[in-house]
Each structure stands twice: as C-alpha cells, then as structure tokens.
C-alpha cells in the first residue's frame, strides 16, 4: 500500500521550496514547476529504481525533464530525495552555484540530460530507451513534457521513432496545464486532440488527473504491463497548483514572486521557508 499521506507531505514541502527558490533568485518558472510536483514525487519517491548515494548506478531508471525551464521542481525533488544538500536550493540561478536556470547534467547529481531547448529532452529520452533495449538492460526511461512543448516538430519525430522501435520501456508524461508563456495553448498554437495524435503515432495513451496519486500510479502500472508500445500519460494539471493567485494564470509562467507574494504563497502552503 503506497503512503499517500507521506507523498502529499513531500509535495507540500517541494512547493514551498519552488516558490522560495524562485523568490530568492528573482527569476525562474513557478507555474509549470508547481503543476508537475505530484508527477515527480511519484516517480522519485516510489516508482523509479534509483540510488541517490550512487547517482550513476548502471541499472538505474532514468528521468529526463524535457521542459527544462521547470528546473525548480526537479531540483527540489532531487534535494529532498537526497541527491545533494538542500542548502543548494538557495543558490538557484546564481553564478558559480550548482543549480542553474536549466538542468545541467555535468554539474548536478541526478540530472540525466541538460535540457531547455524544447523537444530535445524527449528525443534524448527516446534514445536512452532504445539504448536500454539494445543492451538488453532492465532500466526504464521516464520523461516530462509541457503542452506548449509538443508544438515542436522534434517531438513528433521522436514519438514516431519510439513507436517504430517498440520502446515499451519508455514512459512520458505530458504536463497538460493548458497554458504557455504567451497564453492559452489553444490560442497560441492549438495542439488539438493530443490524445488522438499520440495514439495515431502508435503510442499507448492514458489520460489522468496529474495531481491524483491513485491515478498516477494506476497509469504507471498500466504502462509497465504494456508490451510493444511506448506510453504517453496525458496528465491534466493546474498551472501554479497550490498557490491560489498563481493557479491557471499564464503570467506566472516565468515571473518571480515578490516578498509579499512569497509570504502569501507560503501561508497557503502551511508556512515556513525551506531549510
């Protein structure tokens, strides 16, 4: 039986860290970081075969944050999972510090791919899954994409390849919060019937509430039982989840909270600055 109470407590702490980190750096992307907290918590604290004390363990599962601008959610998750000291979170986006604006695989323990150019992380993740297959290795690959990101053509080349090579060790999440930097996805560049699109490209597609652990784990279990197809989990989420004035607001895609904003956000999340 999975400990949902414990996982929910972790998500709350990670959300506090996200808003605190971005406030401290005076820049960053809170909206799409907050929307993905449950997904990363489920993966890192339950689903994936990983060892924070040995980040390069040969048979570890891999996770790629393809929407690399949401680095704060990855950093907070890695820190609380034990990959590095939580004090590092205070150095977000500071010159000479570990945690830069986009993930750096050479400088941050636990980061599998340097991402930020949208679509490339997903392509690399599919390549990793193919490598695992070629080596007859046991490890799986997980990736997280944004719904604005799937407007990129490179995503569809990777999707086509993953289905063609039957990469059933590849599981991707689409953080379907409906907003990107310039506004609603449907108005900027409508992605249409995204579930049907991935199905047409040969993927096993599952639709869930991306903030519901029961649905996240059920989808992951279904993905593991699927043979011959990669899985795309289309997770309906709320941009800025957990902070009332950020929720469903495109303006919080890439803005840092003020002192007053931080005080309100932390109060809504239960108070206390990150350690």
From TrEMBL:
GO molecular function ontology, one term from the record: transferase activity
Aminoacyl-tRNA synthetase is among the record's keywords: no
Transketolase N-terminal domain boundaries: 9-270
Coiled coil: none
Keyword Transferase appears in the UniProt entry: yes
Pfam families, sorted: Transketolase_N
Cofactors, names only: thiamine diphosphate
Keywords: Metal-binding, Thiamine pyrophosphate, Transferase
Family stated for the protein in its record: Belongs to the transketolase family.
Protein name: Transketolase
Organism of this sequence: Romboutsia weinsteinii
């Amino acid at each position: 039986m999975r400990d949902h109470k414990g996982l929910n407590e972790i998500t709350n702490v990670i959300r506090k860290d996200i808003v605190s980190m971005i406030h401290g750096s005076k820049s960053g992307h809170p909206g799409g970081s907050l929307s993905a907290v449950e997904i990363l918590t489920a993966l890192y604290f339950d689903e994936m075969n990983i060892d924070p004390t040995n980040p390069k363990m040969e048979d570890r599962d891999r996770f790629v944050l393809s929407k690399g601008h949401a680095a704060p959610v990855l950093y907070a998750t890695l820190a609380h999972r034990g990959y590095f000291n939580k004090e590092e979170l205070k150095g977000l986006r500071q010159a000479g510090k570990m945690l830069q604006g986009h993930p750096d695989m050479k400088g941050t323990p636990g980061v599998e791919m340097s991402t930020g150019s949208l679509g490339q992380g997903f392509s690399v993740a599919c390549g990793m899954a193919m490598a695992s297959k070629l080596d007859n290795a046991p490890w799986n690959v997980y990736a997280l994409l944004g719904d604005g990101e799937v407007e990129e053509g490179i995503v569809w080349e990777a999707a086509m390849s993953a289905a063609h090579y039957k990469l059933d060790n590849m599981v991707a999440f689409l953080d379907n919060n409906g907003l990107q930097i310039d506004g609603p996805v449907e108005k900027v560049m409508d992605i249409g019937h995204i579930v049907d699109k991935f199905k047409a490209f040969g993927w096993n597609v599952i639709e869930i509430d991306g903030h519901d652990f029961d649905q996240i784990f059920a989808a992951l279990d279904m993905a593991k039982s699927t043979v011959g197809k990669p899985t795309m989990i289309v997770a309906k989420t709320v941009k800025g989840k957990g902070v009332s004035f950020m929720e469903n607001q495109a303006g919080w895609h890439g803005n840092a909270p003020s002192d007053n904003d931080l005080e309100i956000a932390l109060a809504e999340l239960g108070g206390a600055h990150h350690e």
